[in-house]
Amino acid sequence: MLKLMIVDDEPIEREGLQVILQKSFPEIEIFQAKNGKVAVQMADELKPDLVLMDIQMPGMNGLEAIQHITAADPWTKFVMITAFDTFDYARQAIKLGVKDYLLKPSKVSEIVATVGKVLDEIREERRSLDVLEKAMPLVETDVVTQLLFDHVHDVHLDMLVEMLDIPSTDEQFVMSILLPEGGESLYTAVKEKVRRAESAWVGALYGRQLPIIVFRKQDRSFRSQAIALANEILSLAKTNPGAGWFVGIGNVSCSLNQVRQSYQESLIATMDTSLPVKYRFYSDVRVSGNTDDKPLTKQREKQFFDEIRLGKWDNIRTHVMDLIQRCENEGADLLQTQQRVLELLWIAARVMSEIGVETETPLFSYQSQDFRQLRNETSHLLEQMKQSYQAHYEQLEADTMQQIKRYITEHSHEDISLDALSRKVGLSPIYISKMFKEKLGINYIDFLTECRIEKAKKLMADPEKSLKEITFEVGYHEPNYFSKVFKKMVALSPTEYRKTVLGKRV
Where, per UniProt, does this protein localize (predicted)? Predict the structure, then answer.
């Protein structure tokens, strides 16, 4: 039920308005406040959807009361009631986001029409918020996708975290869950297990692999927290048996901007799924070479992932061949070396799958008899993967980028996610993100923001539109966040920018 508050220092005015409104809108709750100060106190407790506010009142006037109420609840809407039909009052009211105003005295038909219009707008906003709430699971997978495979602007990341309403901490780690073949139906069950056990964000399922960003609990050790969650997820194997269940666990990162490293580590930890215990920490993975070489090895791993996504096949080949050379120099067992190379190629194939490139699972056709044979066979497998990568890109139409840009521009006011774009153009979210970086030098959410801000700047030239209306019209759901993004992009607050635009018109 919608709540409406009438604020006026004249009792007869309040009572008259209540009679008119109660008769025309019997479905709403109506409250009265005798002055601005009382209105602020009541609004804090009642959270009214709409306030009919008189301007001239003793003590705190109507405009001051609106400022206080809006600061506490930016969703509240206002209609001014005044005997002062002056431009100065109208200008101040516009700045405060007032929807409309009624002159004393007003006809009953004018009161009903004005209030009815604002109530309809409030109901529409509520429907939009319901849609947003239903879209939250998509927002969650979108956030994980951007964090693990793309760059997220700080201002967007802050707001996305607030939208998800899942408690986060300063430390987090990534778990990569490998599901059995055909395990798509297990996605919901895994997500429910994670949601009950931990504060975490669950990403999208890529093939058999499901990434999860888990937030560290300060009252438990990292290993005990990760093992408990891994066992909780693996308990699903009892009712859903099948080969392939495995959990890889990356190291703890100190910020969301660094969590991609933990993700890559979690993938490395899934290389050998033959272990009797079906989870492994990256820190338990044996690293070739002496202790001093570990930091360098981890850096190579990160570089390897990035090179696969960018298609730098000469660098990829050098990376793999360097691994074989190091193993040979250290006198490593040939069979173990072949297994390590194969695991690395499996990881490469999995990363390719994430960006939409289909390739056969790399397998050695025979056991190498010496390191020379191992190099030759490895070169052959790498060439097959390279051809799959190149064939995928050659099949894409030349106008794909323009199609995506046009779609975003035309639908920028909607909740557009990477997943929505991928379904629209038939490409993977990771590949779309990669295309934006390569073709435009920015990621898709920055392009979407630019479209929205440009649209907002045009709408601000219309003095009849409040900043709240513009916020929703360009695709944002929270005025404070819109203001924050606008100032970041334009170097002026929406109010400052609008003052400049309207001033020029005058």
Answer: Cytoplasm
Determine if residue 426 is left, alpha or beta; phi over 0 gives left, psi from -120 to 50 gives alpha, anything else beta: left
CATH number of 400-505, picked from 3.30.950.10, 1.10.10.60, 3.20.20.10, 1.10.287.40: 1.10.10.60
Rounded Cα–Cα distance for residues 354 and 428 (Å) = 7
> Which carries the bigger pLDDT value, residue 403 or residue 398?
403
SS3 47: coil
What is the per-residue pLDDT across 35-72, written as a single tens digit (0 to 9) for each? 999 999 999 999 999 999 988 888 898 889 998 998 88
Q: How far apart are CA 426 and CA 399, in angstroms?
A: 13
Looking up tokens 């040939």 gives: 334
The token pair that represents 275 in the structure block: 């272990």
Whether this prediction's pTM lies above 0.85 is answered by no
Comparison of pLDDT for 440 and 489, the residue scoring more? 489
CA distance 330 to 500: 70
Reported as a pLDDT band with limits 50, 70 and 90, residue 452 is: very high
253 pairs with which residues across the strands? 172
